């Protein structure tokens, strides 16, 4: 059997330790995501969802507990190796798209590939393929400001998937959209994720969307429990 794409084991995280405003956000939070599995994380605001996603995305370290990505324990790795894992194995989507305003949709999708060493031709070809998948080929040369909110978010999904990651981490990817757009964007995301066979951890407040994923976890008192 292959390793889980993500294994978080008994993560503990306290902010401001020893100070009056000390707050323990994660209390032995654990989860495992198999290859191709799409997991929803439902959590009230302030319960530690972003903290957990930051740790899973190797942007922050836990106080204790372990993080394994495709079987590799990340604590103790050099910054360089950690950056390589983030670039090659993880894809990120946020509530706001964070596309670069001065570049076109296709160029935004090409950039992470160029950073990973792809040629411009190969990167733009892959961008075109991804844009076609989310029905945005006619918008390839548009800058983000010339796209609707739902279109911008679909471009952000393409960018997240550009380097063929095995795990997608998404923090309320449809949180900023109206219900109809949210539905369309969610469908686009699921179709991309299913097509590539990647695993995904998707934080959402939308219980209806969560119910359509393979598994739902709830954040409760700093732990993840089956929802
Ligand atoms: N860098 C930090 N320093 C101190 N406290 C922090 C820090 N980051 C987060 N917190 C606190 O930790 C708790 C959890 O924050 P986190 O952002 O993980 O929650 P969340 O579930 O993602 O919330 P939201 O849905 O509102 O974004 C909050 O009480 C927050 O104020």
Task: Describe what this molecule looks like in 3D.
The two termini are 26 Å apart. Strand 4 (64-69) and strand 5 form a beta hairpin. Helix 3 (105-115) packs across helix 4 (120-133) and helix 3 (105-115) packs parallel to helix 5. The strands form two sheets. A six-stranded mixed β-sheet has the order 6-7-8-3-9-10, with helices on both faces. It contains seven helices and ten strands. Helices cover 35% and strands 26% of the residues. It is an alpha/beta fold and 227 residues long. It has one domain (6-226): 3-Layer(aba) Sandwich (Rossmann fold), CATH 3.40.50.300. Adenosine-5'-triphosphate (ATP) is lined by residues 15-16, 23, 25, 43, 45-51. Residues 6-227 form the ABC transporter domain. Keywords: ATP-binding, Cell inner membrane, Cell membrane, Lipoprotein, Membrane, Nucleotide-binding, Transport. One of its GO terms (cellular component) is membrane protein complex. This is ABC transporter ATP-binding protein. Belongs to the ABC transporter superfamily. Macrolide exporter (TC 3.A.1.122) family.
């Amino acid at each position: 059997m292959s390793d889980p794409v993500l294994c978080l084991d008994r993560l503990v995280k306290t902010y401001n330790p020893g100070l009056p405003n000390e707050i323990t956000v994660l209390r032995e939070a654990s989860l495992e995501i198999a290859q191709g599995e799409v997991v929803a994380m439902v959590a009230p605001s302030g319960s530690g969802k972003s903290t957990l996603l930051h740790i899973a995305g190797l942007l922050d370290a836990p106080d204790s507990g372990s993080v394994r990505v495709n079987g590799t324990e990340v604590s103790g790795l050099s910054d360089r190796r950690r950056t390589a894992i983030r670039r090659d194995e993880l894809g990120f989507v946020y509530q706001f798209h964070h596309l670069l305003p001065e570049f076109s949709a296709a160029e935004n999708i090409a950039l992470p590939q160029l950073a990973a060493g792809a040629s411009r031709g190969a990167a733009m070809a892959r961008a075109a393929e991804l844009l076609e998948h989310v029905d945005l080929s006619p918008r390839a040369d548009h800058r983000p400001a010339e796209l609707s909110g739902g279109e911008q978010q679909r471009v952000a999904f393409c960018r997240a998937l550009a380097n063929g990651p095995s795990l997608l981490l998404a923090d309320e990817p449809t949180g900023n959209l109206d219900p109809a757009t949210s539905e369309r964007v969610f469908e686009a995301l699921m179709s991309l994720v299913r097509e590539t066979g990647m695993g995904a951890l998707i934080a959402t407040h939308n219980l209806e969307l969560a119910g359509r994923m393979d598994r739902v976890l709830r954040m409760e008192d700093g732990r993840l429990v089956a929802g």
